[in-house]
UniProtKB/TrEMBL annotation:
It holds the Pfam family Acetyltransf_3. It comes from the Bacteria. This is GNAT family N-acetyltransferase. GO terms for molecular function: acyltransferase activity, transferring groups other than amino-acyl groups. The lineage of its organism: Bacteria, Pseudomonadati, Bacteroidota, Flavobacteriia, Flavobacteriales. Residues 9-170 form the N-acetyltransferase domain. It comes from Neotamlana laminarinivorans.
C-alpha cells in the first residue's frame, strides 16, 4: 500500500490555510539560496498558486506537499519538480522551516516517504537534487537516503555576488 504517513510525520496536499506559511517561506531571504528564489511573492500570487495546487502532476510537472507532524503542526515543504514522465525522472527539494525542527529526523523521514512515493506510485526510475557545494546538511540528508554525487556544476549559482559550485545528486531505482 502506498502511504505518505511516517512514524513521526506525514505529507499532505496544500490547503488554502497554508497561505501564511508559504508566504513566510517564499519571502524569507535566508532560504532564497536553496529555493532559487530571487524576488518576494505577494499573498495574492501565493493565493492564486494555492487555488491551482490541485492540478495533476502530469499537467503541471510539479507537486508540493506539506510536512506535518501528528499534532497537525506544519513543519516544512517537500517538492517534486521537473517531473518528466517520458524519461521517468524528477527533481526533489525539501525544506524544514523552523530551525528548532531541524536535526530531528523530520527532513529525513519526509524524504524517505517521498522517494518511496515517487518510485512506487509515480513509477519513476530516477530522482535527482541540486545542492550547493557548501550545504553539508543537505548533502548528508540526501546521501543518507542513497543519493550519489554524480556531477559538479562549476560557478553554477550566484549568491551575494559570488559564484558557488553545485553538486548534482542522483538516486536510481534498484
Amino acid at each position: 500500500m502506498i502511504t505518505l504517513k511516517g512514524e513521526h510525520i506525514y505529507l499532505r496536499a496544500l490547503e488554502p490555510e497554508d497561505l501564511e506559511f508559504i508566504y513566510d517561506i517564499e519571502n524569507d531571504e535566508a532560504i532564497w539560496e536553496v529555493s532559487n528564489t530571487q524576488t518576494p511573492y505577494s499573498r495574492y500570487l501565493i493565493k492564486q498558486y494555492l487555488e491551482h495546487a490541485h492540478k495533476d502532476i502530469y499537467e503541471v510537472k510539479q507537486l508540493r506537499l506539506v510536512i506535518s507532524n501528528y499534532e497537525k503542526k506544519t513543519l516544512g515543504l517537500i517538492d517534486i519538480f521537473d517531473f518528466d514522465f517520458k524519461n521517468s525522472r524528477a527533481g526533489i527539494g525539501v525544506l524544514v522551516k523552523n530551525i528548532n525542527n531541524r536535526y530531528k529526523g523530520v527532513g529525513s523521514e519526509a524524504l524517505k516517504l517521498l522517494v518511496n512515493y515517487c518510485f512506487t506510485h509515480l513509477g519513476l526510475h530516477q530522482l535527482y537534487c541540486n545542492i550547493t557545494e557548501d550545504n553539508e546538511v543537505s548533502i548528508k540528508l540526501f546521501t543518507n537516503q542513497g543519493f550519489k554525487k554524480v556531477g559538479l556544476k562549476k560557478d553554477w549559482t550566484k549568491i551575494n555576488g559570488k559564484y558557488k559550485n553545485e553538486y548534482l545528486f542522483q538516486l536510481i531505482k534498484k
